[in-house]
Amino acid sequence: MPLRVALLQQVITGTKVQILQNAVKQIQSAVSQHQPNLVILPESFNCPYDEEALRASAEEIPSGTTSVALRQAAIDCGVFIVGGSIVERSSSGQLHNTCTVWSPRGQLVAKYRKIHLGDSNASVEPATVNESALFTAGDQPVTFNVGSVKIGLGICWDMRFPELAAAYRRQGCQLLIYPSLCDVRTGGMHWELIASSLALNNQLFVAFCSPARDEKAKLVAFGHSLVADPWGEICVEAGEQQEVVVADLNFALIEEVGMKIPVLKQQKSFLDES
Fold it and tell me: Catalytic: 156?
């Protein structure tokens, strides 16, 4: 079935309460204007991306204020919500960079903990957030379904590991979603390139959802939320400011690309013989 997705490239400023209010308002507006099946929020969508704010925002799932707000928004709007990512505090006290997914009935249908933690200092040295020192990594790929469409989850730095995307493809995923906060320098170099290559090499759809750009932030987001199709083409792409981008995904395109470029049927496994 076709799937309409809305990517919410939101401004992340103010208090946690103000940011959540803005997120819910943007969800309501996107659903009212575009009637998507699925709404996607960015990485770290409920607080600025710096260590102090991240620690202060930590909450349990599903009892925390962010989970409660997303659950109610999903029910009120009758839509699936991919809740970007937030800082989850586990029962053991560990912190995780976690993506939650909520059904139109308010059910928590998926919870993905970021597997690959980003410690890049390509643009800022030292790194704005040394994720491996702050977070405990997840260890499990996570999928969920919207109708007959199977979807795989990653968060930002995960996009740089094609093995994860390939694993999702082998599981039958047709769409990969990466809530992401990429800096301006590496975003300009790699953002579209990575999205296109993941989509092309795995012959599926890929969505990257970023916060809007805020030049006053400690880590300035690249923006440019986008969707890439199985041909590796960018279907839709945002600019830098707060906006909603919408894409209608026709999954018949996956079969078409697979027939015309049957590389997935031709793949061979190679063992290290050294």
Answer: yes
Q: Are the CB atoms for 74 and 106 separated by under 8 Å?
A: yes
CB 147 within 8 A of CB 174: no
What are the angstrom distances between the C-alpha of 94 and each of 119, 154, 256?
Answer: 18, 20, 45
The residue annotated as part of the active site, out of 156, 173, 182, 209, is 156
Question: Is residue 4 a contact partner of residue 248, using CB atoms and an 8 Å limit?
Answer: yes
Tally the C-alpha atoms within 13 A of residue 89's C-alpha that lie toward its C-beta: 12
Residue corresponding to tokens 């590389």: 263
Radius of gyration, alpha carbons of the chain: 18
* DSSP assignment letter at 122: S
Per-residue pLDDT tens over the stretch 150-181: 999 999 999 999 999 999 999 999 999 999 99
Per-residue CA distances from 96 to 23, 93, 113, 242 (Å): 21, 10, 6, 26
Does the predicted model carry a pTM greater than 0.90? yes
Which of 47, 88, 114, 209 is flagged as catalytic? Answer: 114
